[in-house]
Amino acid sequence: MSTVREIADQMKLENPILAATPVEMRNAALEKIRTALLANKQAIFAANAEDLAAAEEAGVAVPVVKRLRFDEGKLADVCAGITDLIALPDPVGRTLLARELDEGLVMRRESCPIGVIGVIFEARPDALVQISTLCLKSGNCAILKGGSETARTNRALFQTIHAAAQEAGLPQGCLFQVEARADIAELLACDGSVDLLIPRGSNEFVRYIMDNTRIPVMGHADGICHVYVDRAADAEKAVRIAVDAKTQYVSVCNAAETLLIDRAASPALTRALVESLQEKGVEVRGTDEVRSLVSCEPATDEDWDTEYLALTISVKLVDGVAEAIDHINRHGSHHTDAIVTEDAATAARFLQLVDSANVYQNCSTRFADGFRYGFGAEVGISTSKLHARGPVGLDGLVTYKYKIVGNGHIVSDYASGAKSFHFRDLQA
């Protein structure tokens, strides 16, 4: 049986073949994958039922169990994502720059796949569908390692997807699934064959990946997201947004963990925000100042740096947008932060100065998602400032190469002064 290293080496050789396939073939593969998922759904659901039963027996927390579930709703969502993905333009082979360096010497910068991408993710079997289809559309080979909590579901999904991709004519090495936990260490050592790692999971999990590989890692370690309610906020909007950002789906990285309220806003607004969250079952932890206005649990300094992933939120009053920005940049994870205000100048200041991948005005942090951005789902969300940032869809899965076509041109002619460059941009 081949090792992970041997498989990664072979995928590296096969990637140019996948990258060269016409987009029509890659889209046809996505069509077959969507059809196969629907045709095999009962077997996939049965595998998921076994995973859920095992998780409940092991005492896995309820919010986590919710993420493990793959049902008709999740199937409909991933199929809709595939449909959207098919409709997106081909990200591969686009001319990004065309420049004539000298007569008969033309340079072009063209988009191309990154290569072999290793994606290691916990829970959420729907992530396997999103990741594999995004990689195939963008011409990347993918090595997939899902969490052991959904091993049966992941296996059923992978076998369905891989078989459909091969039936469509894509190379056998376009996708590979790693199942054993021990194989993660070998995957992390595959620098030279694996071009990029994308981890999706807990803070500790992502940090472990980052600290134990020489392969470039794209992603985020945690999601400490904020909603700031300004003195010029519409009260009804503020309540709706804060409640949605915290409670719509608590166990995800773009759920709000801290609510900041302008000290100049009315005490009634603070009470309405806290009580609306409490009505949804949220444990509110507030500063002494907040607790003087409304009943809630006490907050500690540790709360401002905590990703709860649960029905818990910390609340603090701040002295306007300047202090809100400072708090977010100090304690946030640079993921997603929102301001609720009707003041355009205040909003512009917040959007400019908050150093996060996603910054919003008057809407929930839960919009930080590749599907909701029209990217056809995502492989993850990146808080890095290099290459890709925010929800990583097709455009984040390609890089570029330079192609130059000449006619016997040599550098000696330019070094000697016999010829000179005239640099003229052409239409891309």
Task: Reconstruct the topology from this structure.
Elements (H helix, E strand, L loop, with lengths): L3 H16 L3 H17 L1 H17 L4 H7 L3 H16 L7 E8 L2 E9 L2 E6 L4 H12 L3 E5 L5 H17 L7 E4 L4 H6 L7 E5 L2 H9 L13 E5 L5 H13 L8 E7 L4 H13 L3 E4 L1 H4 L5 E2 L13 E7 L1 H12 L4 E5 L3 H10 L4 E4 L18 E3 L7 E3 L5 E8 L5 H5 L8 E2 L3
Parallel strand pairs: 3-4, 3-6, 4-5, 7-8, 7-12, 8-11, 9-10, 9-11, 12-13
Antiparallel strand pairs: 1-2, 1-17, 2-16, 14-15
Structural descriptors:
globular; alpha/beta; four-stranded antiparallel β-sheet; single chain; 428 residues; Aldehyde Dehydrogenase, Chain A, domain 2; 2 domains; 15 helices
What is the percent of helical residues?
A: 40-55%
Report how far the terminal alpha carbons are from each other. 47 Å
Strand content: 15-25%
- Going by CATH, what is the homologous superfamily of the largest domain? Aldehyde Dehydrogenase, Chain A, domain 1
Largest β sheet strand count, sense and barrel closure: 7 strands, parallel
In the sheet with the most strands, the strands line up as 10-9-11-8-7-12-13
Task: Give the low-pLDDT segments.
Answer: none
Number of alpha- plus pi-helical segments:
15
What is the name of the CATH architecture of the largest domain? Answer: 3-Layer(aba) Sandwich
Mean pLDDT: 94
Secondary structure tally: strands: 17
The CATH C-level name of the largest domain is Alpha Beta
Shape: globular
